[in-house]
Write a structure and sequence with these properties.
With 500 residues, the chain is of the alpha+beta class. An 8-stranded antiparallel beta sheet has the order 13-10-12-11-15-16-14-17. A 5-stranded antiparallel beta sheet has the order 3-4-8-6-7. Strand 3 and strand 4 form a beta hairpin.
Length: 500
Amino acid sequence: MVHWQHLVIKYRWVFVLIFLVPASIVSRLYSTIRSWLVFQLLRNPSLHSRRVSHVQRQVREWNSKGRGKQLMCTARPGWQAMSIKVGRYKSTHWNIDVDLHHVLEVDESKRLVRVEPMVTMGQLTATLNPLGWTVPVVPELDDLTVGGLIMGCGVETSSHIYGLFQNTCVAYDLVLADGSVVHASKNENTELYQAIPWSHGTLGFLVAAEISIIPAKTYVHVNYIPAHSRQEMLETFEKEAKAVAVNQFVECLVFSKTTGVIITGKMTDTPAAEARVNQIGRFWKPWFYKHVEQFLTTGPGEECIPLRDYYHRHSKSIFWEIQHIVPFANNPLFRYALGWTMPPKISLLKASQTQALRQLYEQHHTMQDFLVPVKHLGTAIDTFHKEIEIYPLWLCPAILPPSQGMVHPPEGHDQLYVDVGAYGVPTATNFHFKESTQRLEKFVIGVNGFQLLYADCFLSEHDFHKMFDHTLYDRMRKQFSCSDAFPDVYGKVSRAVRTS
């Protein structure tokens, strides 16, 4: 890295603290007030129908003026999405305004919550937890949206029981290419229901989703199990992930090729006498992954964490990405003085990147998640170490059920997979952004795994079809006349057509 590039990255924190942090504070305050107001005042079904009609009118206008000339996509700016890249297609496609941010209904008798697609995880937990409910899978970062998690993928530490986020959704409402609205569930339009997850908005515009809810408790009793060898880490992690009757939550932070901390949890209303309450969401508290790392030295431990603090335990440090942006933000002096301002909004971090800075970061930074069968986890860790050597790695177990959709285990029955998440600056001596990612992709195809498509995807179209089953997806595209209305998934997520 040349001198000026080093300075740009090293001192980006100056711009972040002066400009982006104040803007993030205002944005969070606005979002909090808006979420409360819309849930209290604007969740009337007739108002939702009016908002859906607005989407339908736009699609019908495209049918009369743009069909055959432009494909459609949402009007949401690329920098607002949680994907790390900004797509070129936004500037060439017909943009449809899908401004749907509301929690519509909490039906406790049916154990369902009905929401619009732009509802965030932070908004959803803030609404449900005070009512004594939660969704079975709560992907970590506050700004992740329901629509993105359905159309893309969402995985969390309860996924070893419930599967991916979309596996907890019981129904979808979609505006199709002709402007009509269709309801898809396990009992109605079943094939479309199975095809929607991972389709990235290429079958229609999601306007509502119904998600299962389960009773919430006050705390999560968390156990930290340090491992000091590769074999111990792999065996303990798999054992705890399969103990679904005992562990409601399981993850592992891998701090080196041979060391990691397995973290298990179970909801409770009453803290055990030997488990102190640790409100890790308080702004002066250390970053969660740093808190976890200490158990490698101190030995096993346990504590009780308030439920919502647990759900968003990695948000404050954006897992461990914030160390590369504001490197001193975990210093106790900073935490006590300015910790309440953290973290800057990911969307604003993206919006403030120039083209040159974006290209600079991509050459010296990796953000990838791959789902691999648990039986290949050891080889996966070895491959990640060889190709990128980023630590910590995030390991999150997820059960994948049989399905006709794009992602399912080849065996035709439930299979335990592991999400291997790598976020940060690679230290492997042979790292090269494109070639290293391609070698990881090749490994994942070879073990019947899957790449989460928010990240850079260098797969050829042939290999993309090899990784993701397009059989049902292609049939739905044909049935609902999508080919001249929406790009296909590869056309939205592949590196060649996605990035600016």
